[in-house]
Write a structure and sequence with these properties.
- The chain has a single domain (10-367), classed as NAD(P)-binding Rossmann-like Domain (Rossmann fold).
- The chain has helices at residues 9-30, 43-54, 71-74, 93-102, 117-122, 124-145, 178-195, 220-229, 249-263, 284-294, 319-325, 333-348, 364-367, and strands spanning 34-38, 58-63, 83-87, 107-110, 150-154, 201-206, 208-210, 243-244, 246-248, 273-276, 282-283.
- It is of the alpha/beta class.
- It is globular, with a radius of gyration of 20 Å.
- Helix 2 crosses helix 9, helix 6 (124-145) packs parallel to helix 7 and helix 8 crosses helix 10 (284-294).
- Strand 2 (58-63), helix 3 and strand 3 form a beta-alpha-beta unit.
- The chain is built from 13 helices and eleven strands.
Length: 371
């Protein structure tokens, strides 16, 4: 028998009040600030831009290449007067210096080069340039010219490599895959500049992001939803027993913003890394089953044994973020997954998004096995 905890209307209202108060505190911090988002057309970057605009910040966006199917362009953020868009490479130091010369940047988010671990195998040096080298260059530029600029560097939970779970921030970084190695170097650079040079910079190590506007269908959740909506049986690239820790994308954005705000208040956070996730390791097969239930289809899946380079089990401890930042995910996993599945169903079946006919697209990603 399931136990149900009864709560009073007063406690519900108090909880809602506190949540609204937290949002208002974040909103007031960002009002009128100029924020530089590198990787604005990426999955995380697009959601960051969206939330910053909701909080009335001015966004300086850097995009490496045109992505018409990204949230940034689907929502026409580039047409807004509160957005300044630049095209170029995050490792192009001359471009970075021109951006800082033209705009009074208060906060910098490094969200460039997304977590496509398979793409990295084709271009490992590009990954290292965009992640590690760019971070060293920008932080050194800030050290010399804009030492009060707050920076949040997006690392990854993959930097922990293969070791006992749950991962804690003091756990040694043990990268193996080129993506892991590049992000670990980026991570260490940010730690160094924060602790040695006292720059207001900190690092996020997040679980696997999921949510609307993720068009990388080689990833587990969007790929499974796509297969089911196409009437196909999802194919995994593993036996389905791998475990992952997840984080809904809107909760991830709130964590990024929270960390930046706390950096402005507490210099003991300089150079610190923080885990953000749900603190659960969920089997890939369990994710597939949950999605099938949400879409009201039978839970069928084809498994494979093709992925030797990926870490089999991952889980993050978020105790440090909870204690030092007051972190709590703004959406729980179940709610986030429901919102995600509904987003794909609404936007790609019942509506047309700028003639982006997703169900009829044929790409290499559609044919590839999923996480």
């Amino acid at each position: 028998m399931q136990r149900v905890q009864l709560v009073s209307a007063r406690s519900i209202n108090l909880s809602d009040y506190r949540k609204a108060q937290k949002v208002n505190n974040l909103s007031s911090f960002w009002f009128g600030k100029t924020v530089f988002v590198a990787g604005a057309t990426g999955f995380l970057g697009g959601w960051l831009v969206r939330r910053l605009l909701q909080f009335n910040a001015h966004v300086v966006a850097l995009a490496h290449s045109a992505k018409p199917d990204s949230q940034f362009f689907l929502k026409s953020f580039d047409d807004l007067p509160s957005v300044s868009l630049y095209w170029g490479d995050i490792a192009d130091q001359a471009l970075i210096e021109r951006i800082f010369a033209r705009h009074p940047i208060d906060v910098f988010f490094h969200a460039a080069y997304g977590a496509d671990v398979h793409r990295v195998l084709d271009e490992p040096l590009e990954c290292f340039r965009s992640s590690a080298i760019s971070t060293w260059q920008i932080l050194d530029f800030l050290r010399k010219n804009h030492p009060s600029c707050i920076s949040v560097i997006s690392s990854t939970d993959k930097v922990y490599g293969r070791q006992p779970i749950p991962y804690e921030e003091h756990s040694p970084l043990q990268p193996l895959h080129p993506y892991e190695a590049a992000k670990a170097a980026q991570d260490h650079a940010a730690q160094s500049y924060g602790k040695v040079f006292k720059l207001p910079v900190a690092i996020t190590r997040c679980g696997n992001f999921f949510g609307g506007y993720d068009f990388n269908f080689s990833r587990l959740i969007p790929g499974v939803v796509q297969s089911i909506l196409q009437g196909k049986v999802p194919r995994l690239r593993s036996n389905g027993r791998f475990t992952r820790d997840f984080l809904y994308i809107e909760s991830a954005v709130d964590a990024q913003l929270l960390l930046a705000q706390r950096l402005s208040e507490d210099d003991s956070l300089y150079g610190e890394a923080f885990n953000f996730s749900y603190g659960e390791h969920v089997e890939v097969l369990d994710i597939v089953q949950r999605i099938c239930r949400l879409l009201d289809v039978s839970a069928e899946v084809v498994v494979n044994e093709n992925t030797a380079v990926e870490i089999p089990n991952m889980q993050l401890s978020c105790t440090k973020a909870e204690q030092r930042l007051g972190y709590k995910p703004s959406y729980d996993f179940t709610t986030g997954l429901e919102r995600t599945v509904n987003w794909y169903r609404d936007h790609f079946i019942t509506s047309s998004v700028q003639n982006y006919n997703w169900l009829e697209r044929t790409t290499e990603a559609e044919a590839a096995p999923l996480g």
